Amino acid sequence: MAAAVEVDSGFPRSPRGAVKLARALLALVAFLCFAASRARGAYTALALMEVAITALFFLLYLLKLDKKMSWLFWPLADIFNSVIAALFLLIVCLFAVISKTNNGTLAGGVFGLVLFVLCVVDAVLIFQKISLDGPRRRNTPVK
Protein backbone atom coordinates (compact mmCIF):
# COMPACT_ATOMS: atom_id res chain seq x y z
CA MET A 1 0.00 0.00 0.00
CA ALA A 2 1.44 3.37 -1.02
CA ALA A 3 1.81 6.15 1.52
CA ALA A 4 -0.08 9.37 0.95
CA VAL A 5 2.01 12.26 -0.30
CA GLU A 6 1.78 15.49 1.67
CA VAL A 7 1.68 18.77 -0.21
CA ASP A 8 3.17 21.93 1.26
CA SER A 9 0.67 24.44 -0.11
CA GLY A 10 2.60 27.36 1.38
CA PHE A 11 5.87 26.58 -0.41
CA PRO A 12 4.98 28.18 -3.79
CA ARG A 13 4.08 31.40 -1.95
CA SER A 14 7.27 31.46 0.13
CA PRO A 15 10.29 33.44 -1.07
CA ARG A 16 12.22 30.22 -1.82
CA GLY A 17 9.28 28.71 -3.69
CA ALA A 18 8.74 31.87 -5.72
CA VAL A 19 12.43 32.00 -6.67
CA LYS A 20 12.41 28.30 -7.67
CA LEU A 21 9.30 28.82 -9.79
CA ALA A 22 10.79 31.94 -11.40
CA ARG A 23 14.02 30.04 -12.11
CA ALA A 24 12.15 27.22 -13.85
CA LEU A 25 10.01 29.59 -15.94
CA LEU A 26 12.91 31.84 -16.90
CA ALA A 27 15.02 28.82 -17.86
CA LEU A 28 12.14 27.62 -20.02
CA VAL A 29 12.00 31.00 -21.75
CA ALA A 30 15.78 30.94 -22.30
CA PHE A 31 15.51 27.39 -23.69
CA LEU A 32 12.76 28.45 -26.10
CA CYS A 33 14.85 31.42 -27.27
CA PHE A 34 17.91 29.23 -27.85
CA ALA A 35 15.88 26.49 -29.53
CA ALA A 36 14.07 28.95 -31.82
CA SER A 37 17.36 30.55 -32.86
CA ARG A 38 18.92 27.15 -33.61
CA ALA A 39 21.74 28.03 -31.24
CA ARG A 40 24.56 25.67 -30.34
CA GLY A 41 23.72 22.55 -28.39
CA ALA A 42 25.45 23.77 -25.22
CA TYR A 43 23.08 26.72 -24.92
CA THR A 44 19.90 24.72 -25.29
CA ALA A 45 21.18 21.78 -23.20
CA LEU A 46 22.12 24.04 -20.28
CA ALA A 47 18.76 25.81 -20.31
CA LEU A 48 16.85 22.52 -20.57
CA MET A 49 18.87 20.97 -17.72
CA GLU A 50 18.16 24.03 -15.58
CA VAL A 51 14.41 23.68 -16.23
CA ALA A 52 14.45 19.98 -15.31
CA ILE A 53 16.64 20.17 -12.21
CA THR A 54 14.89 23.25 -10.80
CA ALA A 55 11.47 21.68 -11.41
CA LEU A 56 12.63 18.53 -9.60
CA PHE A 57 13.83 20.52 -6.58
CA PHE A 58 10.56 22.47 -6.61
CA LEU A 59 8.60 19.20 -6.55
CA LEU A 60 10.88 17.80 -3.86
CA TYR A 61 10.03 20.66 -1.50
CA LEU A 62 6.39 20.98 -2.62
CA LEU A 63 5.66 17.31 -1.91
CA LYS A 64 7.81 17.33 1.27
CA LEU A 65 9.92 14.51 -0.11
CA ASP A 66 13.02 16.07 1.45
CA LYS A 67 11.67 14.98 4.84
CA LYS A 68 10.87 11.46 3.66
CA MET A 69 14.22 10.93 1.94
CA SER A 70 16.47 11.95 4.80
CA TRP A 71 19.51 10.04 3.50
CA LEU A 72 20.72 13.26 1.85
CA PHE A 73 20.98 16.76 3.28
CA TRP A 74 18.82 18.34 0.57
CA PRO A 75 19.48 22.03 1.36
CA LEU A 76 23.20 21.48 0.82
CA ALA A 77 22.54 19.64 -2.45
CA ASP A 78 20.29 22.55 -3.47
CA ILE A 79 23.04 25.07 -2.68
CA PHE A 80 25.54 23.10 -4.78
CA ASN A 81 23.01 22.95 -7.62
CA SER A 82 22.42 26.71 -7.47
CA VAL A 83 26.13 27.59 -7.34
CA ILE A 84 27.14 25.21 -10.14
CA ALA A 85 24.20 26.35 -12.28
CA ALA A 86 25.14 29.99 -11.65
CA LEU A 87 28.73 29.38 -12.78
CA PHE A 88 27.69 27.53 -15.94
CA LEU A 89 25.02 30.12 -16.75
CA LEU A 90 27.44 33.00 -16.32
CA ILE A 91 30.01 31.46 -18.67
CA VAL A 92 27.66 30.10 -21.33
CA CYS A 93 25.30 33.09 -21.42
CA LEU A 94 28.16 35.57 -21.60
CA PHE A 95 29.38 33.68 -24.66
CA ALA A 96 25.85 33.78 -26.09
CA VAL A 97 25.56 37.55 -25.54
CA ILE A 98 29.05 38.28 -26.85
CA SER A 99 28.72 36.11 -29.96
CA LYS A 100 25.07 37.17 -30.60
CA THR A 101 24.82 35.16 -33.78
CA ASN A 102 21.17 36.22 -34.05
CA ASN A 103 18.48 37.89 -31.95
CA GLY A 104 17.26 34.60 -30.45
CA THR A 105 20.71 33.75 -29.11
CA LEU A 106 21.07 37.27 -27.75
CA ALA A 107 17.66 37.09 -26.03
CA GLY A 108 18.42 33.64 -24.61
CA GLY A 109 21.75 34.92 -23.30
CA VAL A 110 20.11 37.90 -21.61
CA PHE A 111 17.45 35.67 -20.02
CA GLY A 112 20.25 33.34 -18.95
CA LEU A 113 22.11 36.17 -17.24
CA VAL A 114 18.94 37.13 -15.35
CA LEU A 115 18.64 33.45 -14.46
CA PHE A 116 22.22 33.61 -13.15
CA VAL A 117 21.13 36.33 -10.70
CA LEU A 118 18.16 34.20 -9.59
CA CYS A 119 20.48 31.25 -8.97
CA VAL A 120 22.67 33.41 -6.74
CA VAL A 121 19.60 34.71 -4.87
CA ASP A 122 18.35 31.15 -4.43
CA ALA A 123 21.72 30.01 -3.05
CA VAL A 124 21.76 32.91 -0.58
CA LEU A 125 18.20 32.17 0.58
CA ILE A 126 19.05 28.51 1.16
CA PHE A 127 22.30 29.35 2.91
CA GLN A 128 20.45 31.66 5.31
CA LYS A 129 18.21 28.73 6.32
CA ILE A 130 21.12 26.47 7.19
CA SER A 131 22.54 27.09 10.63
CA LEU A 132 26.26 26.47 10.59
CA ASP A 133 26.88 27.01 14.30
CA GLY A 134 23.61 25.68 15.74
CA PRO A 135 22.76 22.17 16.87
CA ARG A 136 22.99 19.57 14.11
CA ARG A 137 19.73 17.97 13.05
CA ARG A 138 19.10 15.38 10.40
CA ASN A 139 16.73 17.58 8.41
CA THR A 140 16.46 21.36 8.51
CA PRO A 141 13.08 22.59 7.25
CA VAL A 142 13.57 24.76 4.18
CA LYS A 143 10.79 26.95 2.86
Description:
- The protein is an all-alpha fold and 143 residues long.
- The protein has one domain.
- 71% of the residues lie in helices and 0% in strands.
- The chain is built from five helices and no strands.
- Helix 1 packs antiparallel against helix 5 and helix 4 packs antiparallel against helix 5.
- The longest helix is centred in the C-terminal third of the chain and has 27 residues.
- The model has no long low-confidence stretch (mean pLDDT 84).
In a nutshell, what does this entry contain?
This protein has 5 helices and no strands.
Index terms:
about 140 residues; 5 helices; mainly alpha
Question: Topology of this structure?
Answer:
Layout: H1 15-36, H2 41-62, H3 65-68, H4 74-99, H5 103-129
Helix pairs in contact: 1-2, 1-5, 2-4, 4-5
Average pLDDT, all residues: 84
E-strand count: 0
Order of helices and strands: HHHHH
Distance between the termini: 29 Å
The percentage of residues in β strands lies in under 5%
Compute the number of helices.
5
User: How would you sum up the global shape?
Assistant: elongated
Number of structurally distinct domains? 1
Q: Runs with pLDDT <50, length 5+?
A: none
> Helix/strand-derived class?
mainly alpha
In helices, the fraction of residues equals: over 70%
